[in-house]
UniProtKB/TrEMBL annotation:
<keyword id="KW-0238">DNA-binding</keyword>
<dbReference type="Pfam" id="PF00990">
    <property type="entry name" value="GGDEF"/>
</dbReference>
<dbReference type="InterPro" id="IPR029787">
    <property type="entry name" value="Nucleotide_cyclase"/>
</dbReference>
<dbReference type="InterPro" id="IPR043128">
    <property type="entry name" value="Rev_trsase/Diguanyl_cyclase"/>
</dbReference>
<dbReference type="InterPro" id="IPR000160">
    <property type="entry name" value="GGDEF_dom"/>
</dbReference>
<keyword id="KW-0805">Transcription regulation</keyword>
<dbReference type="GO" id="GO:0003700">
    <property type="term" value="F:DNA-binding transcription factor activity"/>
</dbReference>
<feature type="domain" description="GGDEF">
    <location>
        <begin position="514"/>
        <end position="649"/>
    </location>
</feature>
<dbReference type="InterPro" id="IPR028082">
    <property type="entry name" value="Peripla_BP_I"/>
</dbReference>
<dbReference type="InterPro" id="IPR046335">
    <property type="entry name" value="LacI/GalR-like_sensor"/>
</dbReference>
<keyword id="KW-0804">Transcription</keyword>
<dbReference type="Pfam" id="PF13377">
    <property type="entry name" value="Peripla_BP_3"/>
</dbReference>
<protein>
    <submittedName>
        <fullName>Diguanylate cyclase (GGDEF) domain-containing protein</fullName>
    </submittedName>
</protein>
<dbReference type="GO" id="GO:0000976">
    <property type="term" value="F:transcription cis-regulatory region binding"/>
</dbReference>
């Protein structure tokens, strides 16, 4: 167990500007204090329109064992469903039930969880001062969120207070409630255009989305921005800076809020530790654009372009490749085509391993799958199995790497990722992301990076996960159909086709001194059971023989339903005649015990024969099966002759 403390961070849509700023604050403080960070995040919002997909994403919040963390930070805003907090409350309740560790929420108050209020007062005051002092605006319209929403009311109150300090009184008609989304801005534009609301000099919107919706509707109706009306927004989203009329906007204070949450936790878990406050730089947080009449900040705009643009081709230098893998590189790599071409689960895992280079920088990439992820008989599986399979680990140095479903390491789901709690020289961040298809839970991936790395989760990672999910589901279906063609549907045992395939693998791995063993089992009196008690009972009797045959089949052997009521057991190894006799005796004892438990009105019996041969190049499986079949038939005749009264064993 590592002595390094680990902070759990719950958020959603980790590639968003909002989540990235929170992560920046948390990472900076945890780097100062030497803490690891475990991020559990759905890649989409909880109210995503594709409900089944959203359900699959939300499963990630069932994974963390909160008792193993030293503190927990919750991004409440990202977990709110359409302004309802029930979902976030459920997560908080689960946390309370499993840990006494300090829990701090950011953004929206929820229950009795300690909160760090998203104190953006300085930002909104700066927007107001910019509109009045730089551009001389007198009539200002304030557009905020839902009426009664604490954050919306707080932002409005701060703007009203700052404008009053600047000597301006805001008209009642210019105090507008919306929903933080584009439609609110569009509706305000319609009200201004219709004359319902007088045209102000400027609109300050408490979200970029509302500001962009307003500008779009005004321009569509020949109202010029900024000549006729100036527009300012809040949060400095990519869309705002890259809009055709770049939006003057300011970054939120969420990085500092998240950093303060870590400081609260630190003060509780390490009372004597020096708290090093997070420092704001307000000047760097204001992004000037054309929407208010200012000259845009070219450097900031270019940085946003670089992080957003779909580059089809580049002359990639080593540094650029390491630090700036973009969505264009992902799409032009043809990774989806290679992944979906996988024919077997192991091939798919191997292809995912090869494709993981696109997620650089990383220290390790892990893929943890549910134990039953390949079971197509399980319908609508939601949630993780009690144990997980570590099917893939790709490291930066390619040392100790692993990619196999067949030989995967199995661990308790409560551990989440055993490696996360190992000793390390430096602090790391572990991003836990759901792997699923629709609402069917497949497993989860973990991306491990140095906490000091500047890169955060982006569009490349989200789409890589989508490609991986689709490939895993496709290979599940392929595996299912192959499994059906290799296995008997009634008993689940290998059929003749499966026998041939598996036998060839066994033969390739055989040692020169090994022998080939075959056991043929044939049920007695199946016709009598079918005619007297019905074919359903006959099928049950066949399954009973199959179960007994499987129960005496050792790990290195094959159990086959050859057809009808005939079964084979096939093995390659150091067999002798004594082992054969013991195998037959085990079968009879197991069959007797099984049939006594069933208490059927008929006896379920079978005859068995065995054959053994040196595994020479010219020995044939079908020839040895025929030899064992003759021995079985001889045994069956003796049983009939004795009329089941004499034990001929």
């Amino acid at each position: 167990m590592s002595e390094r403390k680990t902070i759990c961070f719950l958020t959603a849509v980790p590639e968003s500007v909002h989540a990235n700023r929170l992560a920046s604050g948390i990472f900076e403080q945890c780097q100062k204090y030497g803490y690891n960070v475990a991020v559990f995040s759905a890649m989409i919002s909880p109210d995503f329109f594709f409900r089944e997909y959203a359900e699959g994403e939300m499963t990630i919040y069932d994974l963390p064992d909160f008792s193993r963390f030293d503190g927990i930070v919750i991004d409440v805003i990202s977990l709110v469903l359409q302004n309802r907090i029930e979902y976030a409350e459920m997560i908080c309740q689960r946390i309370k039930e499993h840990t006494d560790a300090p829990v701090v929420g950011v953004g929206i108050p929820i229950g009795d969880i300690r909160m760090v209020r998203s104190d953006n007062d300085l930002m909104f005051r700066e927007l107001c001062r910019h509109a009045v002092n730089v551009h001389g605006c007198k009539e200002i319209c304030l557009l905020t969120g839902q009426k009664g929403n604490p954050e919306a009311e707080s932002r409005l109150a701060v703007m009203l207070d700052e404008l009053a300090k600047l000597g301006l009184q805001v008209r009642d008609e210019h105090i507008i409630y919306g929903d933080f989304w584009y439609f609110s801005g569009q509706k305000l534009a319609d009200d201004i255009l219709s004359g319902k609301i007088s045209m102000p000099d400027a609109v300050i919107a408490s979200s970029d989305h509302m500001a962009l919706g307003l500008m779009e509707e005004l321009r569509a109706n020949d109202v010029r921005v900024p000549e006729d009306i100036r527009v300012l927004g809040f949060e400095a989203t990519q869309e705002a800076l890259l809009n055709s009329i770049s939006l003057t906007t300011i970054e939120s204070n969420f990085a500092k809020c998240a950093a303060d949450a870590v400081d609260i936790i630190t003060a509780e878990i390490e009372p004597g530790k020096e708290i090093i406050p997070y420092q704001l730089n307000l000047a760097n947080m204001l992004h000037l654009g054309k929407s208010c009449g200012c000259k845009p900040d070219i450097e900031k705009t270019l940085d946003m372009v670089k992080s957003s643009m779909y580059f089809i081709s580049k002359n990639y230098s080593t540094d650029l490749f390491q630090d700036n893998i973009d969505i264009g590189m992902l799409m032009e790599s043809y990774i989806p085509e290679k992944l979906t071409a996988s024919q077997t689960p192991d091939e798919c895992i191997s292809n995912l391993y090869d494709a993981a280079y696109i997620l650089a920088p990383y220290e390790n990439i892990y893929l943890c799958m549910c134990e039953d992820w390949l079971d197509m008989e399980v319908k609508d599986k939601k949630g993780y199995t009690d144990r997980m399979k570590l099917v893939m680990r790709r490291s930066k140095e390619c040392r100790g790497d692993h990619c196999s479903n067949t030989y995967a390491k199995v661990f308790s789901t409560k551990e989440m990722l055993p490696e996360m709690f190992e000793d390390s020289d430096i602090p790391y961040v572990f991003y836990f992301s759901p792997m699923h298809f629709g609402n069917y839970t497949l497993g989860y991936s973990v991306l491990q990076r140095k906490l000091s790395d500047k890169e955060k989760i982006n569009l490349v990672y989200r789409n890589w996960l989508r490609f991986a999910n689709n490939a895993l589901e496709m290979v599940r279906s392929k595996h299912h159909f192959v499994d059906m063609s290799f296995h008997d549907k009634m008993t689940g045992l290998l059929n003749r086709r499966g026998m041939q395939s598996e036998f060839e693998k066994m033969r390739k791995n055989a040692s020169p001194e090994d022998k080939l063993f075959v056991c043929v089992i044939d049920m007695d009196r199946l016709k009598y059971i079918n005619d007297t008690f019905g074919h359903q009972e006959g099928d049950e009797a066949i399954k009973t023989i199959g179960d007994v045959a499987a129960s005496i089949t050792d790990e290195h052997e094959l159990c086959v339903r050859a057809g009808g009521d005939e079964f084979y057991i096939i093995g390659i190894g150091p067999y002798d005649d004594i082992v054969l006799d013991m195998k037959k005796e085990r079968f009879y004892q197991a069959l007797k015990k099984n049939t006594e438990r069933l208490e059927k009105p008929y006896a379920v019996t079978a005859s068995i024969g065995a054959a053994l041969s040196l595994l020479t190049d010219d020995v044939r499986l079908d020839s040895l099966i025929l030899e064992a079949d003759e021995a079985m038939y001889y045994h069956k005749i003796l049983r009939k002759m004795n009329d089941h009264k004499v034990d001929i064993r």
